Each structure stands twice: as C-alpha cells, then as structure tokens.
UniProtKB/TrEMBL annotation:
Signal peptide bounds: 1-22
Keyword Translocase applies: no
Cysteine pairs bridged by disulfides in the record: C28-C35
Name of the protein described by the UniProt record: chitinase
Role this protein plays: Dual chitinase/transglycosylase that plays a role in cell wall architecture. Chitinase and transglycosylase activities are coupled. Required for the polysaccharide cross-linking at the septa and the cell wall. More specifically, transfers chitin to 1,6-beta-glucan in the cell wall.
TM spans (from-to): 321-340
UniProt similarity note: Belongs to the glycosyl hydrolase 16 family. CRH1 subfamily.
Compartments (UniProt record): Cell membrane; Secreted, Cell wall
Length: 342
C-alpha cells in the first residue's frame, strides 16, 4: 500500500517500491473484486515460541530472506544491501490480539516491524526505527487510504534495541489498542477513524520483518525518515523475536468478503472451506463475540509448535519483493508524512 502520491512525490530510487506496490495491487483486493476466501486461524489462540527450533515456523511463511530459530528467538538479519528477512502468518485472524516479544535491530536506518495487514489494505503497525533508541512508532491505515499522513504516533520505550519488550495490538470492531509491555499506549476508536471508514476491520495476516530504510539507494526522504544512511559495514543488524502469541476473536476456517464494502459486517466467518458451502455453514460475524475484551486472551493456549504443517522457507524472488514492499509500506507512508509537511 505504498501510496500513489508517495510514488509521485518520490520518483528517485523507488523502482522496487513501485514494483512491489504494483504487485500488491494485482493481488486480489476484495474492496475491488470478488476474491477467494481467506484461510482463517480456526482456534482461539496460537502461541509461537521462536526459541523452540524450526518447528516454530510451521504456521509461518518466510516471504523474504531466511529466518532461523535461535536461543534468543527468530533471528532476522540484514548483512548486506537488499536483505529484508520477513515472515508472515499462513492464516488470517478476524479481530484479535497479537503480542510480539522482540528486540529491535541496532544500527542506523534499520526498521524493525510487526504489522497486521488485510487483503483490502487495512493495516495496523508497530515500527521501530533503529536510529532512535528510545522510541517506537504506531500507525494504521484503512483500505490503503493515504490521502493524509496524520495517523502515526511515537511511543517512548527504554532501549528497544538492547531489551526485549512486548508490543501488542488488541483489535476489536469498536477500537484498537496498542500495548507496550501490557500497558495501553494508544487507543483508536472506530468513530475517530473517519467515522469508521478508515478503521481497520477486515481479516488480517501478521507480518514481521526488518528492512533498511536508510539504504543509500532509497529516496532522500526515506533515508531522512529512517534517521540517516545505513552503513552496512557496521552490520550485521539483527532483530530477534522471542515469541508471538495470537488470539483470534472469531476462530474460523475461512473468511469470505460477501460484498465490496470492506465493512466487517460483510465478512462471513465459516468453518467450511468449500466455496459452495460458505453460505450454509457460516455464521455472520455480527453474531460472533467480536467485542471480546483483552482479558479473554487468557484462555487456554495451544502450542504453535504442535502444529504439523511445515512452512516453506523460500519463495520466489518476485513474491519476496512484493512482500518486502507490502510489509514496509507503512514506513514509506510515514516518510511521505514528512514530505507533506514540507
Ligand atoms: C504459505 O506457503 C504455503 C506453501 O508455499 C502456501 O500454500 C500458502 O498459500 C502460503 N500462505 C500465505 C498466507 O501466503
Ligand atoms: C506467550 O505466552 C507464553 C506462555 O504463556 C509466554 O511465556 C510468552 O512470554 C508469551 N509471549 C508473548 C509475546 O506474550
Ligand atoms: C481517506 O482519509 C481521509 C482522512 O485521512 C478522509 O478525509 C477521506 O474521506 C478518506 N477517503 C476515503 C475514500 O475513505
Ligand atoms: C547499538 O549501537 C550503539 C551505537 O553504535 C552501541 O553503542 C550499542 O552498544 C549497540 N547495541 C547493541 C545491542 O548492539
Ligand atoms: C469454527 O470452529 C472453531 C473451533 O471449533 C470454533 O471455535 C469457532 O467458533 C467456529 N467458527 C464458526 C464461524 O463457526
């Protein structure tokens, strides 16, 4: 969801972002077309302990670079220009809570991100800019709307690049909370996101990765936003993710957009993956308990490592590039905010 305006404003050095955005847009956007149903997480909770070995990735796809399990957790490293290791959940959740315990990368211009994204470009973000070792940004987008860039906030956090902190998003149909180590640091009410129009409300995947906003080939504004040029000789730069705990407030096998409104009331959660059967066995989300409070997240967890499916560790470079651009669009948008203020 790199914005068009962003691309227009910054032609230099953005060939990859442009390509990525184009690929993102050719993917089925249910806001514009009829698309296949999303695969849901059909359980209340999924905890992933990334210190537990390669089985930890069974519910995650590596979409760029390589990511391995270590004693400190999943290791995302940038060693040289072009590295942008990224993973994403191989399922969607439909309202829920995501806790990410991570230590951001060090260096200059390296962006550590934990974001949620839907097919119609709703997005909820945490982004740490390594240049600033006492803060992290929150952000959100509705339907890829980047007509204004006033949504990001900066949250103080102590030594995010030296210390593990837990960054959470608790997302219901009425509000989004960002929590730092269990304390709410930002709340977005549905009504305050352009009367809900800009409120993220469609099934989301979880995407985690790092990229070099300070890459010397990036546009000047991007480098500025990232706090300066990345000097790869100071690397490697590594982010560690200890664990990710996910609660899905509407567990289901599939989520189907029943129209092009992009409204949460148009999403049918279903325990049948057969498209012909989606209607009969599905229950409208309106009847599900969507306003679950964060306290319900304490229900019994099942271990992510118990899952048997094996995630693919490599994808085509085209897919990787697309994911790179997709995941990091928020950073681009934040940068564009700077442009607009000029
Ligand atoms: C994850 O990878 C598997 C195997 O390549 C693929 O079938 C699946 O569609 C991927 N999931 C997502 C959400 O892209
Ligand atoms: C996830 O849950 C496990 C088990 O309760 C806990 O040890 C871990 O710290 C949690 N991780 C996050 C990111 O909350
Ligand atoms: C996009 O967001 C802006 C506010 O940021 C709002 O004024 C505008 O109506 C939104 N556009 C659409 C199509 O929702
Ligand atoms: C991060 O970089 C700063 C400055 O280069 C350095 O002082 C600090 O020790 C580094 N922290 C880690 C965890 O490597
Ligand atoms: C689907 O099945 C799961 C697990 O049995 C259950 O928790 C959930 O409520 C079901 N969802 C729907 C939409 O029927």
């Amino acid at each position: 969801m790199v914005s068009n305006s962003f691309l227009k404003l910054t032609a230099v050095g953005l060939a990859t972002a442009q390509l990525g955005a184009a690929q993102t847009y050719t993917k089925c956007n249910p806001f514009k077309k009829t698309c296949a149903a999303d695969t849901g997480l059909n359980q209340w909770q999924l905890n992933t302990d990334f210190t537990s070995g390669s089985s930890a990735f069974s519910k995650w796809n590596t979409t760029s670079g390589s990511v391995e399990s270590t004693s400190l957790g999943a290791k995302f490293t940038i060693s040289e220009q072009g590295d942008a290791p990224t993973i994403e959940s191989d399922f969607y959740i439909f309202f829920g809570r995501v806790d990410v315990k991570m230590r951001a990368a060090n260096g200059t211009g390296i962006i550590s991100t934990a974001v949620m994204e839907s097919d119609d470009l709703d997005e909820i973000d945490w982004e740490q800019i390594s240049t600033y070792d006492s803060s992290i940004e929150t952000d959100y987008f509705g339907k890829g709307n980047t007509t204004s860039y006033d949504r990001a906030t900066t949250v103080d956090v102590s030594s995010p690049e030296e210390t593990f902190h837990t960054y959470s998003i608790d997302w219901t149909s009425s509000r989004i909370e960002w929590l730092l180590d269990g304390s709410v640091v930002r709340t977005l009410e549905y009504a305050n996101a352009v009367s809900g129009k800009n409120f993220p409300q469609t099934p989301m995947r979880i995407k985690i990765g790092i990229w070099a906003g300070g890459d010397p080939d990036n546009a000047e504004g991007t480098i500025e936003w990232a706090g300066g040029e990345t000097d790869y000789t100071n690397g490697p730069f590594t982010m560690y993710v200890d664990s990710v705990n996910i609660t899905n407030y509407n567990p289901a096998q599939a989520y189907k957009y029943t129209d092009k409104t992009g409204s949460y009331t148009s999403i049918k959660a279903s325990n049948s993956t057969s498209s012909t059967n989606l209607g009969s066995s599905s229950s409208s989300v309106a009847s599900s308990s969507m306003a679950s409070s964060s306290s319900s997240a304490s229900k019994t967890a099942s271990s992510g490592s118990a899952a048997s499916a094996s995630a693919s560790s490599t994808m085509s470079s085209a897919a990787s590039l697309s994911q790179f651009c997709f995941v990091f669009a928020a950073g681009m948008a934040a940068f564009a905010a700077g442009i607009f203020q000029l």
